[in-house]
Every structure is written in structure tokens, then in C-alpha cells.
Design a protein that fits this description.
alpha+beta, single chain, 6 helices, 26% strand, globular
């Protein structure tokens, strides 16, 4: 059994930014990317939590505001301490913050080919939908939810385990202009890639 005696979760400070950015880059294949300026903006608002083990940083969680639905934008634990309940303790800390603030649920998105899907399932999160991911990776996105209040019904769907496949995007030759588009522009870009 892992001891959490030397494990602490605290709000991030700007001095933690180099570590957070390093860990984000090291895990870029499984995390969505946020520029440093986003963390610089949100760290003062206590939207980033850092995990510390033996007075050394070992992970972080970037969240949205504590509203009815709290969104986890990123959650990452260093590879060498995964599987020892530190990630679970970090997420439980956020769940406690959400309950104390009167939040009703926590939501997050996870790529279908990412091993963390199993973690979220073990933590009691339910996959509530599967959406299309970006065209360059060609994977699906599982949307996970955990209710922080008792519910009469919990509806869920089977999470996708579709592997990343960027072959259609590579073969299309479409790499200019709209790769980071949102909304209708993103849908038009997806159609353009899929037509090739």
C-alpha cells in the first residue's frame, strides 16, 4: 500500500510554471496543448493544482472554474510515480474542492488511444459521449463525467478505444491554414481532409 504521508496538493504558483510546462511537453502525445501564457493567466486564479511528493513536484491538474460543472483541462503525474495512487489523490482533492463549492459534476475529455481512460474509469468516471477528435491524429475523444451529488440515473456509453490514425490527414496534403480552426471552420477543414 502506498503511503500518502509525504504527498501534498497545493495551488500552483508562477514559480511552478517551468515544471508544469516541462511535464506538459514531455507528455504531449497524450495531453492537449496549452501555451505557457494560458498557465500564466490561470495560475493566479488557483486554477492549477500541483502535486508534491517529498517536497518535489510530481504532477499537476489544470481545471476550469468551480461551477455546476467543473472541467479538467489537463491532469498529469510524472511517469516514475504513476500507479502509486498519487494521481488518484490529486483528482480526489479536486473532487473535494468541487463538493465544497457546490459543484454538481466534473467533466473531462480524453483521447481514445490514451491509457488514462482506464484510470478515469477506475476513479468512478462514466463515459457519457464519444466525439470526433482532430483530423491530424485521427482519433476519437471520450468525454468522462463524475457526479459529485447522488443521482437517480447515471447514463453512460462504451468508451472508444480507437487507435490514433493520421494516415488520412498525411495523404490529404492539406496542412495549411485551418489546422487550428474552431467551430464551423473546423468542420469545413475536416471535410476538406476527408475528401482527399
Amino acid at each position: 500500500m502506498t503511503s500518502l504521508a509525504d504527498f501534498v496538493v497545493r495551488p500552483a504558483v508562477l514559480a511552478d510554471l517551468p515544471y508544469i510546462d516541462h511535464l506538459q511537453r514531455k507528455n504531449s502525445g497524450t495531453l492537449s496543448f496549452y501555451p505557457r501564457i494560458v498557465f500564466e493567466r490561470d495560475i493566479p486564479g488557483n486554477l492549477v493544482l500541483t502535486a508534491w511528493l517529498n517536497d518535489e513536484p510530481c504532477g499537476y491538474l489544470y481545471r476550469g472554474p468551480l461551477r455546476d460543472a467543473v472541467r479538467i483541462h489537463q491532469a498529469c503525474i510524472q511517469y516514475d510515480v504513476r500507479g502509486y495512487q498519487y494521481g488518484a489523490a490529486l483528482v480526489r482533492h479536486l473532487e473535494a474542492l468541487g463538493r465544497a463549492a457546490g459543484s454538481l459534476r466534473i467533466l473531462l475529455r480524453c483521447g481514445s488511444d490514451v491509457a488514462a481512460n482506464g484510470f478515469w474509469q477506475v476513479m468512478g468516471y462514466k463515459c457519457i459521449s464519444v466525439t470526433a477528435g482532430g483530423v491530424s491524429r485521427g482519433r476519437e475523444i471520450n468525454v468522462w463525467e463524475k457526479s459529485l451529488v447522488p443521482r437517480l440515473f447515471d447514463l453512460s456509453v462504451l468508451p472508444s478505444s480507437r487507435k490514433q490514425d493520421s494516415s488520412r490527414w498525411r495523404k490529404s496534403g492539406v496542412r495549411q491554414g485551418h489546422r487550428f480552426a474552431r467551430g464551423n471552420e473546423m468542420h469545413a477543414y475536416r471535410e476538406l481532409v476527408e475528401q482527399q
